[in-house]
Amino acid sequence: MDSDEKDLENIDVMSTVPKVGGTIGKLFDILDSIFTAFATLALLAIVFTVLVQIISRLFFPSPPIWTAEGSKYLFIYMVAMASGVVIRRSRNVNVELFQVYLSPRGLAVYQAVICTLIGSFAAYILPHAWAFAQVGTFQSSPTLYISMFYIFLSTVFLFSLVLLYSAIGVFEAIAAMFRKPPTETESTSWN
After folding, report:
1. How many Å separate Cα 12 from the centre of its chain?
2. In this protein, which residues make up the domain named Tripartite ATP-independent periplasmic transporters DctQ component (predicted)?
């Protein structure tokens, strides 16, 4: 982690809740890497699609019609794939009104409550997202000619990842609540 990332971590109060270590922590980190890679691939595909559109507008009489629609769908999937990692790394937009006054264990309790609420919402929405995705089986994309089911399925991925990462957040918060605070000589993320 470079100095800019460390500075960013110190600004964010919620990042002081330590992540789970050991084998489980490594599995969570691998999961983060997988979904970050998917989101990055979607971003690179967006860049490629936009470049195709720009180059074709400059050098050809008419650009391919699929580029605008393709970039929109790639953006939707990029957001869906990154949603869980954003929750785990506390990179979502939030307002910190009272969190700075909480102890490390208080922050862990707060994280558990917030993740439980977010996860409950995602669990409630998930069946509706699946029903929405099934509506797409009867429709096709106007320019890409693919079933809209695959596009609407992004909502299922989004809420599934939000639910999964909310559960991970609750797990990490509970682990942090019962973790023994480090002594003065140990390095820590309990700031």
Report:
1. 17
2. 46-174
Distance of CA 81 to the CA centre of its chain: 6
Q: Classify the phi-psi angles of 22: left when phi > 0, otherwise alpha if psi is within -120 to 50, otherwise beta.
A: left
Q: First-to-last CA distance in the chain?
A: 17
pLDDT tens readout for residues 61-116: 888 989 999 999 999 999 999 999 998 887 777 777 787 788 888 889 999 999 99
Residue with tokens 């690179």: 44
| pTM score | 0.82
- Cα-based distances in Å from 48 to 41, 43, 71, 131: 10, 9, 9, 32
Domain range list for the chain: 3-89+99-177
AA identity, residue 165? Y
Q: How far apart are alpha carbons 152 and 132 in whole angstroms?
A: 7
Report residue 162 as tokens. 């939000």
